[in-house]
Model the fold of this input.
Amino acid sequence: MADIDALLADLVTASRILAHEGICDAFGHISVRNPDDPSRFFLARAIAPELVTRDDILQFELDGTAVDDDRKPFLERFIHGTLMQARPDIQSVVHSHSRGVIPFGVTGTPIRPLLHSCGVLGTDVPVWDANDAFGDTNLLISSNEMGADFARTLGGARAALMRGHGSTVVGRSIREAVYSAVYLDVNAQLQAAAMQIGTVKYLTDGEISLIQSRLADAKPDEGYDRAWQYWARRADASRA
Ligand SMILES: [Zn+2]
Done:
C-alpha cells in the first residue's frame, strides 16, 4: 500500500508552489493518480490553489465522478481523468492559465525549448483549439468528450496549450509535473523575449534527449527533488 497521506501532503504543497510561482492564480489545479487504484485520482474541491489544505482534497473516478463527496468540484476536472485514461504513464496533471504561454496558443508560433531547464518539455508542444471540434464554447474543458479530444491532441507529449485559455502539463510524478509546468512558462517568457531580439537558436533534439536522460537518472535530492525543495521552502516562507 502506498503512503497516501504523504502523497496528499505533496499535492497540497504542489498547489501552493504553483500559486507562489505564478503558474496558478485564483484558478488552475493539480491532480495525482491514486497509486493503490489507478482508476481514481485526487484533486481539490473548487478552491484557489493557494488555499488548498488536506481537507479540501476529493477523490474522483476517471470519468470525473466524485467518490462519496458532494462538495463543489472543479468544472475542468475532466481534463485530469481523461488524460490519465488515455495515458497510463501519467501520474499527475497540472492545468493552469499561466500568462506566459497564452501568446503562443493564439498566434500559431510553437513553443520550443531554448533553455536547458526547459528540455523537459520535449520537442513538441501541441496546441488544442476547442473551436475545431466543438465550435463556439466558453473554452473550458467541461465534459469527458472535450477532455478526450484534448487528450488526442496532447498525444505522447509532456504539455499542450489550449487556444485562448491556458495549458496542461503531465508528469510521471507530482514533482515532474510541477517542474514541467514552471519551466513551460519560463520558456514561453524567454522565447517571447528572444524573438524580439533576433533569430532564436533552440535546443536540438539531441540536446533535449540528453537533458531528459540526465533528469531520469537523477539521484534523490537532485533534479526534480532539488527544484521541489527550493520551491516548497519559498512557498512556505511566503505564508509566515
Ligand atoms: Zn482552465
